[in-house]
Specification:
The protein has 187 residues and is an all-beta fold. It folds into 3 domains: 2-62, SH3 type barrels (Roll), CATH 2.30.30; 65-125, Beta Barrel (OB fold (Dihydrolipoamide Acetyltransferase, E2P)), CATH 2.40.50; 129-185, OB fold (Dihydrolipoamide Acetyltransferase, E2P) (Beta Barrel), CATH 2.40.50.140. It has strands at residues 2-3, 12-15, 18-28, 36-43, 49-55, 59-62, 65-76, 79-84, 90-94, 109-115, 121-125, 129-137, 150-155, 160-164, 172-176, 181-185. The strands form 3 sheets. Strands 1-6-2-3-4-5 form a 6-stranded antiparallel sheet, with no helix packed on it. It starts with a strand and ends with a strand.
Length: 187
């Protein structure tokens, strides 16, 4: 058993007869009244996200997990296929287990969390950032740079995001997988 002081991003807990992964959390200590922890939980079975508030000191049941490195092979529809980098065994996961499936490039190495009780895969942790090539974007309008102006762009995986006006087709850009936003131009 853990308490609310043990809550951190990525922790898997058992809540309402399901296993949830903590996506975001915030410890709140109001001036009046008891402290509490506001969390955003994602179900590892259905992918549904819910907001929940735990009072300070509340006991939560954490799930013991094991992490393994897997390489993304390919996807067919909503099923994503991965290969263990140690023993070359392959597994298939549904799209709901992934946080940012649109940013997953073939050959990318990810970390998959497994429940130690029944060896079932719980979720896929992407690297903090990925480098992808821009396949389509409109040319930037010259002189429209007084503010942080952005334009839509499509990357090689098919994902769409906003990039600065100076990014052109063929440029490689670094993308934050947590928020699916542009970080910088890659070398």
């Amino acid at each position: 058993m853990a308490s609310t002081s043990d809550i951190r991003k990525g922790l898997c807990i058992r809540y309402n007869n399901d296993i949830y992964k903590i996506i975001e959390f915030l410890h709140v200590k109001p001036g009046k009244g008891p402290a509490f922890v506001r969390t955003k939980l994602k179900s590892v079975t259905s992918g549904k996200v819910l907001d929940n508030t735990f009072s300070a000191g509340h006991k939560i049941e954490d799930v013991r997990v094991e992490t393994r490195s897997y390489q993304f092979l390919y996807s067919d529809g909503e099923t994503y296929h991965f290969m263990n980098t140690d023993d070359y065994n392959q597994i298939a996961l549904q799209e709901s287990a992934l946080d940012a499936p649109g940013l997953l490039k073939e050959g990318e190495v990810v970390t998959i969390l497994f429940n130690t009780e029944d060896a079932m895969p719980l979720s896929v942790d992407m690297p903090a950032s990925v480098v992808l090539e821009v396949t389509h974007t409109e040319p930037g309008v010259k002189g429209n740079t007084a503010t942080n102006a952005t334009k839509p762009a499509t990357v090689e995986t098919g994902a769409r995001l906003n990039v600065p006006l100076f990014i052109n087709e063929g440029d490689k850009i670094k993308i934050d997988t947590g928020s699916a936003t542009y970080m910088e131009r890659a070398k």
